[in-house]
Fold this sequence. Notes:
By secondary structure, the chain is an alpha+beta fold. The protein is built from five helices and 17 strands.
Amino acid sequence: MMKIKSLVYFISILAVVFTILTSFTLKTSVNTKKYLSVEKAIKAGLIEAKIVSKGGHTGYCMVAKLKSRCAKDTFIYFEAGRRLKSVDSTKQDILITQDQPITLFSGEEKTVNIYGFCCQSHRGSPVVGGKFEVGKMADTPLVLIAQFCNKKRKLPANVVQNAVWTISDNHSLASVHNDDMEEINELRNYIAQLKGIQLTWYTLTYQKDNSLLFSNKPEKLFGEIKYYLPNNTYATLAVFDSRGNIMNVVFEDVPHNPDTYNYAFSLDVSDFPKGKYYIRLFDGVQKKLEKVFEL
Protein backbone atom coordinates (compact mmCIF):
# COMPACT_ATOMS: atom_id res chain seq x y z
CA MET A 1 0.00 0.00 0.00
CA MET A 2 2.83 2.40 0.88
CA LYS A 3 4.51 1.70 -2.48
CA ILE A 4 1.26 2.45 -4.33
CA LYS A 5 0.82 5.73 -2.43
CA SER A 6 4.43 6.70 -3.18
CA LEU A 7 3.93 5.92 -6.86
CA VAL A 8 0.72 7.96 -6.99
CA TYR A 9 2.47 10.88 -5.28
CA PHE A 10 5.42 10.67 -7.70
CA ILE A 11 3.10 10.61 -10.72
CA SER A 12 1.16 13.61 -9.37
CA ILE A 13 4.40 15.57 -8.96
CA LEU A 14 5.41 14.74 -12.54
CA ALA A 15 2.00 15.90 -13.73
CA VAL A 16 2.42 19.25 -11.96
CA VAL A 17 5.90 19.74 -13.42
CA PHE A 18 4.66 18.84 -16.91
CA THR A 19 1.76 21.29 -16.59
CA ILE A 20 4.11 24.08 -15.53
CA LEU A 21 6.58 23.46 -18.35
CA THR A 22 3.97 23.08 -21.08
CA SER A 23 2.33 26.35 -20.02
CA PHE A 24 5.37 28.14 -21.49
CA THR A 25 5.96 28.35 -25.22
CA LEU A 26 9.39 27.89 -26.75
CA LYS A 27 9.97 30.75 -29.18
CA THR A 28 12.87 32.30 -31.04
CA SER A 29 13.26 35.80 -32.45
CA VAL A 30 14.88 34.41 -35.62
CA ASN A 31 13.11 33.44 -38.84
CA THR A 32 13.75 29.69 -38.70
CA LYS A 33 12.50 29.22 -42.28
CA LYS A 34 15.50 31.24 -43.45
CA TYR A 35 18.13 30.58 -40.79
CA LEU A 36 19.52 27.14 -39.94
CA SER A 37 20.68 26.11 -36.49
CA VAL A 38 24.48 26.27 -36.25
CA GLU A 39 24.49 22.67 -35.03
CA LYS A 40 22.55 21.45 -38.08
CA ALA A 41 24.76 23.51 -40.40
CA ILE A 42 27.88 21.86 -38.99
CA LYS A 43 26.42 18.35 -39.21
CA ALA A 44 25.37 19.02 -42.81
CA GLY A 45 28.92 20.07 -43.68
CA LEU A 46 27.83 23.58 -44.67
CA ILE A 47 30.19 25.35 -42.28
CA GLU A 48 33.15 24.83 -39.97
CA ALA A 49 33.06 26.37 -36.50
CA LYS A 50 35.71 26.83 -33.83
CA ILE A 51 34.41 28.24 -30.55
CA VAL A 52 36.75 29.63 -27.91
CA SER A 53 36.45 31.65 -24.74
CA LYS A 54 37.45 35.30 -24.43
CA GLY A 55 37.93 34.68 -20.72
CA GLY A 56 35.20 35.32 -18.16
CA HIS A 57 31.74 33.88 -17.89
CA THR A 58 29.19 36.62 -18.60
CA GLY A 59 28.08 38.66 -21.59
CA TYR A 60 30.05 38.56 -24.84
CA CYS A 61 32.47 36.03 -23.40
CA MET A 62 32.67 33.63 -26.36
CA VAL A 63 34.04 33.87 -29.91
CA ALA A 64 32.92 31.74 -32.84
CA LYS A 65 35.28 31.46 -35.82
CA LEU A 66 33.15 30.39 -38.77
CA LYS A 67 34.06 29.26 -42.28
CA SER A 68 31.69 28.59 -45.16
CA ARG A 69 32.08 25.26 -46.95
CA CYS A 70 29.12 25.87 -49.22
CA ALA A 71 28.88 27.06 -52.82
CA LYS A 72 26.08 29.43 -51.90
CA ASP A 73 25.37 31.88 -49.10
CA THR A 74 24.48 30.26 -45.78
CA PHE A 75 22.17 31.69 -43.14
CA ILE A 76 22.78 30.28 -39.68
CA TYR A 77 22.08 31.28 -36.10
CA PHE A 78 23.17 30.58 -32.56
CA GLU A 79 20.02 30.03 -30.50
CA ALA A 80 19.18 31.45 -27.09
CA GLY A 81 19.12 28.27 -25.02
CA ARG A 82 22.05 26.54 -26.72
CA ARG A 83 24.55 25.15 -24.23
CA LEU A 84 28.13 25.48 -25.45
CA LYS A 85 30.13 22.60 -23.99
CA SER A 86 33.56 23.22 -22.49
CA VAL A 87 36.23 20.78 -23.69
CA ASP A 88 37.91 21.21 -20.28
CA SER A 89 35.61 19.42 -17.83
CA THR A 90 36.84 21.60 -14.94
CA LYS A 91 35.46 24.70 -16.66
CA GLN A 92 31.83 25.65 -16.96
CA ASP A 93 29.55 25.33 -19.96
CA ILE A 94 28.08 28.54 -21.34
CA LEU A 95 24.36 29.09 -21.95
CA ILE A 96 23.62 31.42 -24.86
CA THR A 97 20.96 33.96 -23.90
CA GLN A 98 20.69 35.99 -27.11
CA ASP A 99 19.72 34.72 -30.55
CA GLN A 100 22.41 35.60 -33.07
CA PRO A 101 21.64 35.31 -36.80
CA ILE A 102 24.69 35.23 -39.10
CA THR A 103 25.08 35.38 -42.87
CA LEU A 104 28.07 33.57 -44.38
CA PHE A 105 28.79 34.24 -48.03
CA SER A 106 30.19 31.39 -50.10
CA GLY A 107 33.74 30.61 -48.92
CA GLU A 108 33.65 33.43 -46.34
CA GLU A 109 35.41 33.28 -42.98
CA LYS A 110 33.90 35.31 -40.17
CA THR A 111 34.49 35.85 -36.44
CA VAL A 112 31.53 36.72 -34.21
CA ASN A 113 31.11 37.35 -30.50
CA ILE A 114 28.53 35.22 -28.69
CA TYR A 115 26.50 36.40 -25.68
CA GLY A 116 26.11 33.86 -22.87
CA PHE A 117 26.46 32.98 -19.21
CA CYS A 118 27.87 30.31 -16.95
CA CYS A 119 25.47 27.47 -16.17
CA GLN A 120 27.65 25.47 -13.74
CA SER A 121 28.50 27.74 -10.81
CA HIS A 122 30.60 25.07 -9.08
CA ARG A 123 33.12 24.93 -11.95
CA GLY A 124 35.88 27.33 -12.92
CA SER A 125 35.57 30.30 -15.24
CA PRO A 126 36.83 29.67 -18.81
CA VAL A 127 40.29 31.00 -19.65
CA VAL A 128 41.22 32.98 -22.74
CA GLY A 129 41.36 30.59 -25.68
CA GLY A 130 39.56 27.79 -23.85
CA LYS A 131 37.98 25.46 -26.40
CA PHE A 132 34.26 24.74 -26.63
CA GLU A 133 32.05 22.42 -28.66
CA VAL A 134 28.86 23.70 -30.24
CA GLY A 135 26.99 21.49 -27.76
CA LYS A 136 23.22 21.15 -27.92
CA MET A 137 20.06 22.86 -26.78
CA ALA A 138 19.81 22.86 -22.98
CA ASP A 139 17.03 21.26 -20.96
CA THR A 140 13.64 22.97 -21.34
CA PRO A 141 13.73 25.18 -18.19
CA LEU A 142 17.14 26.59 -19.16
CA VAL A 143 15.98 27.18 -22.74
CA LEU A 144 12.94 29.03 -21.39
CA ILE A 145 14.94 31.32 -19.11
CA ALA A 146 17.42 31.99 -21.92
CA GLN A 147 14.61 32.90 -24.29
CA PHE A 148 13.02 35.17 -21.69
CA CYS A 149 16.33 37.01 -21.28
CA ASN A 150 16.66 37.14 -25.08
CA LYS A 151 13.47 39.21 -25.15
CA LYS A 152 14.60 41.40 -22.24
CA ARG A 153 18.04 42.38 -23.48
CA LYS A 154 18.34 45.41 -21.19
CA LEU A 155 18.53 43.22 -18.10
CA PRO A 156 21.86 43.76 -16.28
CA ALA A 157 24.43 41.00 -16.81
CA ASN A 158 24.67 40.14 -13.11
CA VAL A 159 20.89 39.71 -12.94
CA VAL A 160 20.85 37.38 -15.96
CA GLN A 161 23.71 35.34 -14.50
CA ASN A 162 21.91 34.84 -11.19
CA ALA A 163 18.67 34.04 -13.03
CA VAL A 164 20.44 31.31 -15.03
CA TRP A 165 21.90 29.84 -11.85
CA THR A 166 18.47 29.63 -10.20
CA ILE A 167 17.63 27.09 -12.92
CA SER A 168 20.95 25.39 -13.68
CA ASP A 169 22.25 25.16 -10.10
CA ASN A 170 19.04 25.60 -8.10
CA HIS A 171 20.22 28.82 -6.46
CA SER A 172 17.71 30.69 -4.34
CA LEU A 173 15.32 33.01 -6.17
CA ALA A 174 16.38 35.59 -3.59
CA SER A 175 19.77 35.75 -5.35
CA VAL A 176 18.14 37.56 -8.30
CA HIS A 177 18.69 41.10 -7.00
CA ASN A 178 19.03 44.53 -8.51
CA ASP A 179 19.13 48.06 -7.07
CA ASP A 180 16.06 48.81 -9.19
CA MET A 181 13.79 45.93 -8.21
CA GLU A 182 10.93 47.08 -10.46
CA GLU A 183 13.23 46.42 -13.41
CA ILE A 184 13.43 42.70 -12.59
CA ASN A 185 10.02 41.96 -11.07
CA GLU A 186 8.78 40.32 -14.27
CA LEU A 187 11.87 38.10 -14.41
CA ARG A 188 11.53 37.05 -10.78
CA ASN A 189 7.86 36.22 -11.27
CA TYR A 190 8.71 34.19 -14.37
CA ILE A 191 11.34 32.16 -12.50
CA ALA A 192 8.91 31.49 -9.64
CA GLN A 193 6.30 30.19 -12.11
CA LEU A 194 8.87 28.16 -14.00
CA LYS A 195 10.11 26.46 -10.83
CA GLY A 196 6.68 26.19 -9.23
CA ILE A 197 7.78 28.08 -6.11
CA GLN A 198 6.62 31.11 -4.15
CA LEU A 199 8.11 34.50 -4.95
CA THR A 200 10.49 35.56 -2.17
CA TRP A 201 9.62 38.87 -0.47
CA TYR A 202 13.34 39.58 -0.05
CA THR A 203 16.52 39.41 -2.12
CA LEU A 204 20.12 38.62 -1.20
CA THR A 205 23.55 39.69 -2.34
CA TYR A 206 26.53 37.42 -1.74
CA GLN A 207 30.09 37.82 -0.56
CA LYS A 208 32.84 37.92 -3.17
CA ASP A 209 35.31 35.06 -3.37
CA ASN A 210 38.13 35.27 -5.91
CA SER A 211 38.51 31.49 -5.89
CA LEU A 212 34.85 30.80 -6.69
CA LEU A 213 32.31 32.11 -9.18
CA PHE A 214 29.63 31.97 -6.49
CA SER A 215 30.52 31.97 -2.80
CA ASN A 216 27.02 30.94 -1.60
CA LYS A 217 27.68 33.12 1.45
CA PRO A 218 24.93 35.75 1.84
CA GLU A 219 26.15 39.25 2.60
CA LYS A 220 23.10 41.53 2.63
CA LEU A 221 19.35 41.06 2.68
CA PHE A 222 17.04 43.59 1.05
CA GLY A 223 13.31 43.73 1.59
CA GLU A 224 10.22 45.79 2.16
CA ILE A 225 7.70 45.25 4.95
CA LYS A 226 4.17 46.60 4.78
CA TYR A 227 2.32 46.97 8.08
CA TYR A 228 -0.64 48.78 9.64
CA LEU A 229 -0.81 50.25 13.12
CA PRO A 230 -4.27 51.45 14.25
CA ASN A 231 -3.14 53.55 17.22
CA ASN A 232 -0.39 55.90 18.33
CA THR A 233 2.33 53.61 19.57
CA TYR A 234 6.02 52.83 19.84
CA ALA A 235 7.04 50.02 17.51
CA THR A 236 10.08 47.72 17.34
CA LEU A 237 11.32 45.66 14.41
CA ALA A 238 13.82 42.91 15.18
CA VAL A 239 15.33 39.76 13.65
CA PHE A 240 15.27 36.43 15.52
CA ASP A 241 16.82 33.06 14.83
CA SER A 242 14.86 29.80 15.04
CA ARG A 243 15.65 29.54 18.78
CA GLY A 244 14.23 32.96 19.54
CA ASN A 245 17.58 34.73 19.96
CA ILE A 246 17.70 38.35 18.79
CA MET A 247 20.10 38.66 15.86
CA ASN A 248 19.50 42.30 14.95
CA VAL A 249 17.28 45.19 15.98
CA VAL A 250 16.26 47.11 12.86
CA PHE A 251 14.54 49.84 14.88
CA GLU A 252 13.40 50.08 18.50
CA ASP A 253 10.62 52.05 20.21
CA VAL A 254 10.07 54.30 17.21
CA PRO A 255 6.92 56.44 17.55
CA HIS A 256 4.21 55.69 14.96
CA ASN A 257 0.93 57.44 14.17
CA PRO A 258 -2.08 55.38 13.08
CA ASP A 259 -1.29 54.55 9.43
CA THR A 260 -0.14 51.98 6.89
CA TYR A 261 3.63 51.83 6.45
CA ASN A 262 5.98 50.48 3.78
CA TYR A 263 9.39 50.07 5.32
CA ALA A 264 12.29 49.28 2.97
CA PHE A 265 15.49 48.14 4.62
CA SER A 266 18.77 46.31 4.12
CA LEU A 267 20.32 43.98 6.65
CA ASP A 268 23.89 42.74 7.02
CA VAL A 269 23.65 38.95 7.29
CA SER A 270 27.29 38.11 6.59
CA ASP A 271 27.77 36.72 10.12
CA PHE A 272 24.46 34.84 10.26
CA PRO A 273 24.75 31.02 10.23
CA LYS A 274 22.71 29.18 7.61
CA GLY A 275 19.14 28.62 8.68
CA LYS A 276 15.69 30.13 9.02
CA TYR A 277 15.10 33.59 10.52
CA TYR A 278 12.11 35.68 11.54
CA ILE A 279 11.59 39.42 11.22
CA ARG A 280 9.00 40.46 13.80
CA LEU A 281 7.23 43.76 14.38
CA PHE A 282 6.07 44.55 17.91
CA ASP A 283 3.53 47.14 19.00
CA GLY A 284 4.77 47.49 22.54
CA VAL A 285 4.90 43.84 23.64
CA GLN A 286 2.32 42.56 21.15
CA LYS A 287 3.60 40.92 17.96
CA LYS A 288 1.87 42.53 14.98
CA LEU A 289 3.71 40.96 12.04
CA GLU A 290 6.18 38.19 11.18
CA LYS A 291 8.19 37.59 8.01
CA VAL A 292 10.42 34.55 7.40
CA PHE A 293 13.64 34.40 5.42
CA GLU A 294 16.20 31.69 4.90
CA LEU A 295 19.97 31.73 4.36
